[in-house]
Design a protein that fits this description.
The complex is a heterotrimer of chains A (287), B (318) and C (239). Chain A has 287 residues and is an all-alpha fold. Chain A contains 11 helices and 2 strands; from the N terminus they run ααααββααααααα. Chain A has one domain. Chain B is 78% helix and 1% strand. The chains are: A mainly alpha (287), B mainly alpha (318), C alpha/beta (239).
Chain lengths: 287, 318, 239
C-alpha cells in the first residue's frame, strides 16, 4: 500500500508541475501558434532566478511570483518583437509555424547560453521546507506538497481567468480563429503576446517550484521541454484542459517507471509519444 | 551524344567548376598545411550535414531537428564496430543504421502534420542519449567507449568522398522527377497528393536517405574523438548548426547550405579558439533569429533577388 | 453501372455531421451539379470522394470498385481528378511545370519527361493558358489560376473530374468562359461533378443536380425539377 501511494501520489505531485509547464506550452501553441521549444529554457531560467533570489534571503515562494512576472514580461516582449515580426512576414500559417519554430530553436540556444554564462554548468540546490509529511504511511517532502499545490493553484487560477474574464474570452476567441477575432474587435497582436507571456510565466513558475524540491542545472531545459511536448500531445494539441489532465497522467506513469528504473523515464515517455502518434495523434481531448 | 549541340558554357558551369573544386580539395592534404587540413575537414563535415538536412527539410518544409541523432548513431557505430571491421564497412553500417532510424521516425510521424514531426525529432536526440546511456550502464556496466584512431588524411578523404556523393544525390534529386515531387509537396502537399504523388512514401524515403550521409559522417568524425559517451555523441548543437547554416545560406539551391556551412564553420573556428568561446551558442542563436526575420530566403535568395533586379524582367523560379 | 456512387456517406466533425447519410450516383458522361447553401457539406463530400477524408460510415464506389479508405494518390491514378475551392496551385513553380507534374504522376501510367512536357503544352492550350506558360503560377489572376488547376487535373488523365466552385470570384465574362471550358471537358468524354453557387452556370451546363442542406441530400433531379422544387426554394430563400 505504501509503495502504491509512493508511486501514485508521487506521480501526481510531479504531475502537477508537468501540468503547469504543459499548459504554458499549449497556450503558446494553441493560441499564439508558436511551438516554443525554448519553453524548457524559460523554465530553467525561472528556477535559477529563484535560486539566486533565495540566496539573497528572499523566500522561495515569494520569488515564484516575481519569477512569474519577470518571465511574463520577457515572453511578452519576445512575442511582440520577434514573433509578431515573423507573423507579419509570413504569407501563410504554415510558413509562420515553421519560421517561429526555428526562431524558438534559436532562442533555445540564446537563453541556455546566457544561463550558463551567469551560473555555469554545475547543479545547484538549496534546502527549503525539507521536512517530511506522512500520507498513508508513505513519506513525502513538505516542499513537494507545497510546490504541487501552488502549481495546481496557478493552473486553476488561469483556467478561471480564461473562462470568466473578458481578456480570457478574447484569448479563447483568438485560439479559435485569430483573423475573425481580430475583426470582432479583439486586439490580436496584444492578445497573442499576452498568451505567449502567460505561457512563459507558467514555465518560469514551474521552474521556481521545481527548484524548491529538486537540484537544478542549466541544461535541464531540454528534458522539461520534451516532457511538455509529450504531455501536450497526450492531452491534445491546443487543449488546455487536456494538458492539465495529461500532466498528471504522465507524472504517474513516469513515477511508476522511475521506481522500476530511473534511466528509462525518457524512453517511457517516448514510447507513449510513439503510441499516441500511431494510434491517436489528437490525444485525449484534441479536436 | 551530339557534341555540337551541347551548350559548352552550361557544361562548364555545372560540371567544370565542381571538378576543378574537387581537384583542389583532393590535393589539399598534399600541399596544404595541417591547420588547413583540419579546417577543411570541418568545412566538409558541416557542408555534408547542411546539404543533407536541406535535401529533405529544405524541399518539403518539414523541419527536422534530429540531425544530431543520426550523426550520433554514426559515432556509436564507429565506437562499436571500429575495431572489428575496416572503416569502409563501418561507414556503411553507420549510414544504414541511420537510414533505418530515420525511416522509422518518418513512418511514425510523416503521416501527420509537420508540427508532430518537428516535436518528435526535437526530442529524439535526448531519447537516443538516454537510451544508449541506459544500455551502457545497465547492460554493459561501463560508460563511454574508445574509438579506433584514423589519420587526418584518411578522415579527410572519406569526408571528401561522402561530400561528393551527397552533392551528387542532392543534385540528382533536385533535377529529377523525384525532385519535382518533393518540390510540389513543399509547395502544396494536399494538391501533390491529389495529382498522384504518394506523398507519405516520398517523404519517408527522402528523409531516410538524407540521414545516411549524417550517419556516415558521424562514423568518420568519431575516429577523431578517441573517446565517446552518449553526451558527446548526441549533442543538440549538431542539430542546430546545419539548420543555421542552411537557412543563412538559403535552402532554395544546393549551394546555399554549402556557403552557409563554410561561413559558419569558419566563424565557429575563430570563436571557439578565442575569448568568445563561451558566447558562440548565443551569437549563433541570435544570428538564426535575425536570419529568419531579415533574410528568410538566405544569402542565396538575397543574391538572386539582387541579380533579378539588376538584370531586369521577370524570370520564373525553376 | 454508375461511374461513381456513394452509399450512406457520412462524416462527423466532433458532434456535428458535415455530411449525413448521403446516397448518390453519377453516370458516365454526365455533368452533375452539387448545390446547397454554404456549409451544406458539398466540399466535404468532395473531400470524401477524393480521399482527403474518410467517410465514417459510408461507402464510395468508383466503376463498381470500393474505393473507401484508399489514399488520395491512388484515387487520382485510378481516374478521379479534382480542383479545390481555395486554389491549390504550386505557387513558386512555372505554370507549365504545374501541369507537367500532373502529367508525370497522375495518370497511373509511365510517362516520360518529354511526353509530360508535350501533354502539359496541350492541356495549357486546352484551357487557354499557353501565353503565360513560363510565369510563376502565383503571378496569375485568380481566374487563370483556376484554369491552371483544371489543366493540372486534366493532365492526370481523369475519367471523372470534380470541380469545386470553379466560378467563385469570377466576373461575368470569366464565368461565361468557364462554362465553355466545362462544356469542352464534357465533350472530351470526361464525367463532371461540379459544386457551384452560380445558378446560371448550373442550370445551363448540368444534366442533373443534387441539393444538399445541413449535410443531407434534400433534392435531386433535372435543372427544371430543382428550380420548381418548393423544398429547394425554401432552403435558398428562407421561409
Amino acid at each position: 500500500m505504501e509503495l502504491f501511494l509512493n508511486i501514485v501520489l508521487g506521480g501526481l505531485l510531479i504531475g502537477g508541475i508537468y501540468s503547469l509547464v504543459s499548459m504554458g506550452l499549449t497556450l503558446q501553441y494553441g493560441v499564439a501558434r508558436v511551438l516554443n521549444i525554448a519553453h524548457g529554457e524559460f523554465l530553467m531560467f525561472g528556477s535559477f532566478i529563484t535560486f539566486w533570489l533565495q540566496q539573497h534571503r528572499v523566500d522561495p515562494l515569494v520569488t515564484v511570483l516575481i519569477v512569474g512576472l519577470l518571465l511574463f514580461i520577457a515572453g511578452f516582449i519576445f512575442y511582440r518583437t520577434i514573433f509578431t515580426s515573423i507573423r507579419l512576414r509570413s504569407p501563410n500559417p504554415g510558413v509562420f509555424e515553421s519560421n517561429s519554430l526555428l526562431a524558438a530553436f534559436g532562442l533555445y540556444f540564446i537563453v541556455q547560453n546566457i544561463a550558463v554564462l551567469i551560473w555555469g554548468t554545475t547543479p545547484r540546490s538549496y534546502s527549503y521546507l525539507a521536512g517530511s509529511v506522512s500520507i498513508g504511511g508513505a513519506l513525502f517532502n513538505e516542499n513537494r506538497l507545497v510546490a504541487t499545490a501552488f502549481a495546481v493553484a496557478v493552473g486553476t487560477a488561469f483556467y478561471l481567468f480564461l473562462a470568466r474574464t473578458r481578456t480570457g474570452k478574447a484569448i479563447r476567441a483568438a485560439a479559435q480563429d485569430a483573423t475573425t477575432a481580430g475583426l470582432m474587435g479583439v486586439n490580436i497582436n496584444y492578445t497573442l503576446a499576452l498568451c505567449f507571456g502567460f505561457g512563459a510565466a507558467m514555465a518560469g513558475i514551474a521552474g521556481s517550484l521545481i527548484s524548491i524540491c529538486y537540484p537544478i542545472f542549466t541544461t535541464m531545459g531540454l528534458q522539461q521541454t520534451v516532457i511538455a511536448i509529450v504531455v501536450v500531445t497526450l492531452g491534445g494539441l491546443g487543449s488546455i484542459p487536456g494538458s492539465f489532465i495529461g500532466g498528471f497522467i504522465l507524472g504517474v506513469i513516469g513515477s511508476a517507471v522511475t521506481y522500476w528504473d530511473a534511466g528509462l523515464a525518457v524512453a517511457s515517455y517516448y514510447i507513449i509519444f510513439i503510441l499516441l502518434l500511431l494510434l491517436r495523434p489528437k490525444g485525449i481531448m484534441g479536436k | 551524344m551530339d557534341f555540337s549541340k551541347l551548350n559548352w558554357k552550361k557544361v562548364f558551369l555545372t560540371a567544370g567548376i565542381p571538378v576543378i573544386v574537387l581537384v583542389i580539395l583532393g590535393l589539399l592534404p598534399v600541399y596544404g598545411s595541417a591547420y588547413n587540413l583540419t579546417l577543411f575537414t570541418y568545412f566538409l563535415l558541416y557542408i555534408i550535414l547542411s546539404v543533407s538536412w536541406t535535401i529533405f527539410s529544405g524541399t518539403t518544409g518539414y523541419i527536422s531537428l534530429a540531425t544530431a541523432a543520426f550523426y550520433g548513431v554514426g559515432i556509436y557505430a564507429a565506437a562499436l564496430y571500429g575495431e572489428k571491421y575496416p572503416l569502409i564497412v563501418v561507414v556503411l553500417i553507420g549510414g544504414l543504421s541511420s537510414f533505418v532510424l530515420a525511416f522509422l521516425v518518418g513512418a511514425i510521424t510523416l503521416r501527420l502534420k509537420g508540427i508532430y514531426f518537428a516535436m518528435f525529432t526535437f526530442g529524439l536526440v535526448l531519447l537516443m542519449k538516454e537510451v544508449i546511456y541506459y544500455w551502457e550502464i545497465t547492460i554493459e556496466g561501463t560508460r563511454g567507449r574508445f574509438v579506433v584512431l584514423e589519420s587526418n588524411e584518411t578522415i579527410y578523404f572519406y569526408l571528401l568522398g561522402i561530400f561528393v556523393i551527397t552533392m551528387i544525390v542532392a543534385y540528382l534529386m533536385k533535377k529529377s522527377k523525384y525532385g519535382l515531387a518533393l518540390q510540389s509537396i513543399g509547395e502544396n502537399e494536399e494538391a501533390a497528393a491529389h495529382i498522384g504523388i504518394n506523398v507519405t512514401m516520398v517523404k519517408i524515403l527522402t528523409y531516410a536517405v538524407s540521414a545516411i550521409f549524417m550517419g556516415a559522417t558521424g562514423v568518420i568524425m568519431a575516429t577523431k574523438l578517441t573517446y565517446v559517451d552518449p553526451g558527446v555523441a548526441f549533442n543538440p548543437l549538431m542539430s542546430f548548426s546545419p539548420v543555421l547554416m542552411a537557412i543563412f545560406g538559403g535552402f532554395g539551391s544546393i549551394y546555399g547550405p554549402v556557403i552557409g556551412a563554410v561561413i559558419f564553420t569558419y566563424i565557429q573556428e575563430k570563436l571557439t579558439t578565442g575569448v568568445w568561446n563561451k558566447y558562440y551558442m548565443l551569437i549563433f542563436g541570435a544570428i538564426l533569429v535575425a536570419t529568419i526575420l531579415y533574410l528568410p530566403s538566405g544569402l542565396v535568395g538575397l543574391i538572386q533577388r539582387i541579380w533579378r533586379r539588376v538584370s531586369g524582367g521577370q524570370r520564373a523560379h525553376t | 453501372m454508375h461511374i461513381l456512387e456513394g452509399e450512406g456517406v457520412t462524416k462527423y466533425f466532433g458532434g456535428l455531421a458535415a455530411v449525413s447519410d448521403v446516397n448518390f450516383y453519377v453516370d458516365q458522361g454526365e455533368v452533375l451539379g452539387l448545390i446547397g447553401p454554404n456549409g451544406a457539406g458539398k466540399t466535404t463530400l468532395f473531400n470524401l470522394i477524393s480521399a482527403s477524408l474518410v467517410p465514417k460510415p459510408g461507402i464510395i464506389k468508383y466503376k463498381g470498385k470500393n474505393i473507401t479508405g484508399l489514399s488520395p494518390y491512388k484515387i487520382c491514378r485510378m481516374g478521379i481528378g479534382r480542383t479545390f475551392q481555395t486554389v491549390k496551385i504550386f505557387a513558386s513553380l512555372p505554370v507549365i511545370e504545374n501541369v507537367r507534374i500532373g502529367a508525370l504522376f497522375g495518370s497511373g501510367k509511365r510517362v516520360s519527361s518529354a511526353e509530360a512536357t508535350r501533354y502539359a503544352g496541350e492541356f495549357l492550350e486546352f484551357v487557354g493558358l499557353t501565353k503565360v506558360g513560363s510565369l510563376p503560377a502565383k503571378d496569375l489572376t485568380l481566374a487563370n489560376q483556376k484554369r491552371l488547376e483544371v489543366a493540372r487535373a486534366l493532365a492526370t488523365q481523369p475519367e471523372l473530374l470534380l470541380l469545386d466552385e470553379l466560378m467563385a470570384g469570377l466576373n461575368q465574362t470569366e464565368i461565361t468562359q468557364a462554362m465553355e471550358l466545362v462544356k469542352k471537358i464534357r465533350e472530351k468524354g470526361i464525367t463532371i461533378v461540379m459544386i457551384e453557387h452560380v445558378m446560371k452556370a448550373i442550370m445551363n451546363v448540368c444534366d442533373r443536380i443534387i441539393v444538399l442542406n445541413y449535410g443531407k441530400k434534400i433534392a435531386e433531379g433535372t435543372p427544371q425539377e430543382i428550380t420548381s422544387s418548393k423544398t429547394v426554394i425554401e432552403v435558398y430563400l428562407g421561409e
